[in-house]
Automatic annotation (TrEMBL):
Protein name in the entry: Nucleoside transporter/FeoB GTPase Gate domain-containing protein
Keyword presence, Membrane: yes
Membrane-spanning intervals of the chain: 12-34, 59-78, 123-144, 164-189, 219-239, 280-300
InterPro entries: Gate_dom (IPR011642)
Domain Nucleoside transporter/FeoB GTPase Gate: 18-113
Annotated keywords: Membrane, Transmembrane, Transmembrane helix
Amino acid sequence: MNVFFKELLQKIIFVSVSLFKVMIPVIILVKIFIEMGGIDLIARFLGPPMELIGLPPEFSIIWATTMLTNLSAGFLILMEMMRTQTFTVEQVTLLATLMLFAHSLPVEARVAQKAGLRLRVTLVLRIGGGYLLAWILHIIYTRYGLLQEPLVVLWQQDTYDDSLIGWLKSQLIALLMIQLVIILLLFLLKVLKLIGVEKIMIILLIPFLRLLGIRKEAATLSIVGITLGLSYGGGLLMNEAAKGHLSRQDIFASLSLLNLCHSMIDDTLIMLVMGADASAVIWARLIFSIAAIAVLVRIIRWLPDSIWDKYLIRWKW
């Protein structure tokens, strides 16, 4: 038991320090950006696409920040916006969908690139795939009147102090809440690992991976990425690809799947805490990812080697 909590404490410290080293500078930069009218600048470019799927233009700064940093930074900005505005469950769910598909791109896109997938493929899959699923969900939710109620969250306040001191206080509270989420999340992940949930997920997912043309050599590594994150799975795939153990279809299919569907446990929990509905961040994301890659691999398998090597896969490590 002592070992359990010692390892948990070490993990909490490592994750928290790594996360806040990124988040705190981002918070300050975003505050400066907002004070300089940056929301209007971003909304001019990303605002119209956001409005097409029923999202307010100001959500564009959340998505842009998330793409460049991580989910928690975007979550923090949403918390800031929700102090003065009200959004529906659908809007937060669609935003969460965009965030889950396209986040931490400077790091994760590079990992996928090093593992063998061209950068252009990663960006199209993650940004385009996320937007496509959000658009589909928007049509469904609007057509059937689903998730149209206002989102009620624990961190909403009746009054808002827009002074610098008030902003600093609100950010401190928000960071403390994020820290609490990190502690609970890592504790839950460790418990799930102890009771064997990861092994169950492997058993359940391997048949689906085979349908996508992912052979056994890459299947287990793909499941690591799906459950724990692209950086973990991509790193393992990078090692196997460099050794020549994987075919180009294994590399393309597994990394494409991981780009659309990774960190299904921890990232999903963060979005659920944010207020997103499970219908999108769990089921729709999983079904869409498997269906999209199943169709994609059947189309590209007929492409000539020159197209594979020039536009899809890189073979030099």
